Amino acid sequence: AAAEAAAAAEAKAAAAAGPPPVKKGPKPLTVGVFGLTGAGKSTMVVALNGDPDPKPTKTIGFRRHNMTIGGDVDVKIVFYDMPGSMQKKWEGYTTDVHGAIYVVDAAADEAQWAKSVAAYKKFDAECAKFVDGKPMLVVANKQDLEGARSPEAVSEELGLAGREHTEVLGVTAHPKRHTTGEVDERAERGLMWVVDAIKGRYDELRERVVKDEANREAEEFKAKLEREKRVFCTILRNKAFPEEGEPVECMSLEDGLEFIADETGELQEELPPVVEQICRLVNNHKVALTMCGGLKKPVSKKKKKHSWDEIIAYVKERRAEAGLPDEL
After folding, report:
1. Taking the C-alpha atoms of 107, 112, 118 and 120 in order, what is their torsion angle to the nearest 10 degrees?
2. What is d(CA 106, CA 140) in angstroms, rounded to the nearest whole number?
3. Separation between Cα atoms, residue 11 and residue 211, nearest integer Å
4. Can you tell me the distance from the alpha carbon of 208 to that of 49, in angstroms, rounded to the nearest whole number?
């Protein structure tokens, strides 16, 4: 509980500190680009960045594209090009974007279109807390193909009517497939809409990015602590004190005391009596003692350093969760 409170306090402090001052030069904008595989995300970004004939390829892993627009616009854009195969990881990249572009294949057959609609609605639900309120351009791509759904139809099916800070455009992302053989001016117009929307609320969005990132890190830290508790509990129940069979990976008390002294960098003869209790309560299990050592002498600066009394309380809590008594 103390560690969770410390993580929350750190997140609050980071958010309160606000974003770092903007350096001289083009304003840095970060834009996340999302959509299923084959929708044309990378093709559009690469085309907008000056490639007259981008080669559509499946995105493997996260890609970062940089673009600078000079003149009166004067911005440096970093695009987070997210592969459609990594939908579970999309949320982790939405905290530090100022705006988003979501690309759909408007000419997809009915089965693929149903998947596109489902994927967008999942994105909308799972990433809402980090995306809602930020500028979002929804691109109805492949308008050059027969039967492509109109921007109006896409907006209706994705439930975008009336959504604030959102624009839907029909686009042919690949320059060679556009009627002019050049970059679709609608794609350029859409990009400028995103840029202008972010610039118009730049300070507000920068502050939100800092807060969102701090909150996400605090949530991840809390989740990590909970995972560690579950692991500790499982070790006690299944390995240190199994209902059937012999304990595994457990040492003698003498070896356990020597081991935890090494883990914490303390002299064995100077360890307080409570450490012996801790060793007995975990049956001198090697991994459990390693975790206790990590509480006493954490590697991460984000983790609180625990006293031996706090560690024995932690162990007793895990024993209770494992259905074991407080004392042997």
Report:
1. -40
2. 5
3. 8
4. 27
Question: pLDDT by residue (tens digit) across 44-60?
Answer: 999 998 877 777 666 56
Structure tokens at 219: 């949530």
3-state per-residue secondary structure call for the chain: CHHHHHHHHHHHHHHHHCCCCCCCCCEEEEEEEECCCCCCHHHHHHHHCCCCCCCCCCCCCCEEEEEEECCCCCEEEEEEECCHHHHHHCHHHCCCCCEEEEEEECCCCHHHHHHHHHHHHHHHHHCHHHHCCCCEEEEEECCCCCCCCCHHHHHHHHCCCCCCCEEEEECCCCHHHCCCCCCCHHHHHHHHHHHHHHHHCHHHHHHHHHHHHHHHHHHHHHHHHHHHHHHHHHHHHHHHCCCCCCCCCECCHHHHHHHHHHHHCCCHHHCCHHHHHHHHHCCCEHHHHHHHHHHHCCCCCCCCCCCHHHHHHHHHHHHHHCCCCCCC
For residues 317 and 328, what is the distance between their CA atoms, to the nearest angstrom?
A: 14
| Whole-number Å distance between alpha carbons of 39 and 143 | 12
Torsions phi, psi for 281 (to 5 deg): -70, -20
Q: Give the up-direction half-sphere exposure of residue 61: CA atoms within 13 A in the CB hemisphere.
A: 1
Of 50-54, 103-107, 136-140, 169-173, least confident by mean pLDDT is 50-54
Give the CA angle between residues 115, 60, 114 to the nearest 5°.
5
pTM of the model: 0.76
Is the C-alpha dihedral spanning 292, 296, 299, 303 positive or negative? positive
pLDDT in tens, 10-27: 555 555 555 666 566 788
Place of tokens 């031996």: 308
Structural tokens at position 321 = 């969760």
Q: Which residues pair with 65 in a beta bridge?
A: 79
End-to-end Cα, the chain, rounded Å: 25
